Amino acid sequence: MTNEEKFKELRKEYERGVLEEASVKPCPIAQFREWFDLACAQPGEAEANACAVATVGSDLRPSVRMVLLKSLDERGFVFFTNYDSLKGRQISENGFGAMLFYWASLERQVRIEGAFEFVSAAESDSYFASRPRGSQIAAAASTQSRAAASRAEIERAWAELESTSAGGVIQRPANWGGYRLIPESVEFWQGRESRLHDRIRFKRSSAGGWTVERLWP
Predict the structure, then answer these.
(1) Residues 113, 185 contacting (CB under 8 angstroms)
(2) Domains along the chain?
(3) Where are the alpha helices (DSSP H) in 25-177?
(4) Each residue's pLDDT tens digit, 67-77
(5) Is 195 in the active site?
(6) In this model, does residue 21 exceed pLDDT 90?
(7) What is the three-class DSSP state of 36?
(8) What is the sign, positive or negative, of the torsion defined by CA atoms of 14, 18, 19, 21?
(9) Which residue(s) pair with 204 in the sheet?
């Protein structure tokens, strides 16, 4: 069987649930928390907080990568990274982006669009301090997204910092911290049979509240 034939054969019906306007929470953050908690309880979802983050720089060329959601409140969705990475540079050039969660075991996805902001230094310090020491060293030693001569060069930089720190506290680098995606649109997608998927979108209104609408699949 060719790859093209395999692609055509890969098909399943979605029948794990439904999504009705009457059942969604009045706030998308509350609705997300409900779905997220269910995803965390699924044995097949090892990292329910994994999400794709899409950014676009001044050259208008999009870029997307997987990150881990590390904080959520009424203000938005938070992840941490190197500010000098590709995503960080693109966010500095164009402050808008998108985030996508996909939970295959529940046949659900959540799409979030909005603007990025830096989290406070205190929030970044707190999260950095909670990371395993090896991850702290990796963050401090990395020139993320830059070309490396070899894997050995990367491992050497980590080992040198681990050695010079002599077991002491690893300080959060000034160019490493959190971004918050402030939601302007949040879409909840539930797979349905015959591809008649349920799509319920929250859009932030000019008054600061949310309007809810159903989208065609």
Answers:
(1) yes
(2) 14-123+174-214 (2.30.110.10)
(3) 28-40, 86-93, 121-130, 133-141, 151-165
(4) 999 999 999 99
(5) yes
(6) yes
(7) helix
(8) positive
(9) 210
Q: What is the pLDDT at residue 106?
A: 97
CA distance 19 to 200: 8
Instruction: Look at residues 22, 19, 25, 8 and name the one whose alpha carbon lies nearest to residue 191.
Output: 19
Q: Which of 133, 195, 199, 201 is flagged as catalytic?
A: 195
Q: Is 192 helix (H, G, I), strand (E, B) or coil?
A: coil
Tell if the pTM clears 0.90, that is, is over it: yes
Q: Which two tokens stand for residue 44?
A: 């097949």
74 phi-psi bin (left φ>0, alpha ψ -120 to 50, beta other): alpha
Query: pLDDT tens digits, residue range 137-188?
Result: 999 999 898 999 999 999 999 999 999 998 899 999 999 999 999 999 999 9
